Amino acid sequence: QVQLVESGGGLVQAGGSLRLSCAASGLPFSILSMGWFRQAPGKEREFVAAINRSGKSTNYADSVKARFTISRDNAKNTLYLQMNSLKPEDTAVYYCAATPWYPASVPRSAQDFDSWGQGTQVTVSS
Q1: Burial of 46 from C-beta contacts in 10 A (0-12 / 13-18 / 19+)
Q2: Stretch 71-83: mean pLDDT, rounded?
Q3: Which of 86, 45, 43 is nearest to 68 (CA)?
Q4: Whole-angstrom Cα distance, residue 126 to residue 12?
Q5: Does residue 85 contact residue 15 with C-beta atoms inside 8 Å?
Q6: Among residues 74, 70, 3, which one has the least CA distance to residue 36?
Q7: For residue 17, how many other CB atoms are within 10 A of its CB?
Q8: Which of 27, 45, 70, 126 lies at a 20 to 30 A Cα distance from 76?
Q9: Burial of 55 by CB count in 10 Å (0-12 exposed, 13-18 middle, 19+ buried)?
Q10: For residue 87, what pLDDT band results from cuts at 50, 70 and 90?
Q11: For residues 118 and 103, what is the distance between their CA atoms, to the nearest angstrom?
């Protein structure tokens, strides 16, 4: 029922910054908990960050905490991921995800999300 479209990926040098966006439609955006995941070649999809309905609670993977910031603009039905101090190991396809089933908590397992975008490629060169 939820359609998600990511954008903003690209090629950047190590130490650079990038902001990803995810536009949502199909259900009221304000009822959706949202998350970002990434998948590098040969690796399983891993959790990056998540945010609750209101945007007041967030959760981050240890590998990105203090470098990445997840946020949302409910008026624009859009989720964001600001990525700073990028490292080559951040290279992956980044996916946004949504679920209406966690009104207050912030899920971090891929199994907790039931709608996914098509992904956007982020490549960080050394």
Answers
A1: middle
A2: 97
A3: 86
A4: 9
A5: yes
A6: 70
A7: 11
A8: 45
A9: middle
A10: very high
A11: 24
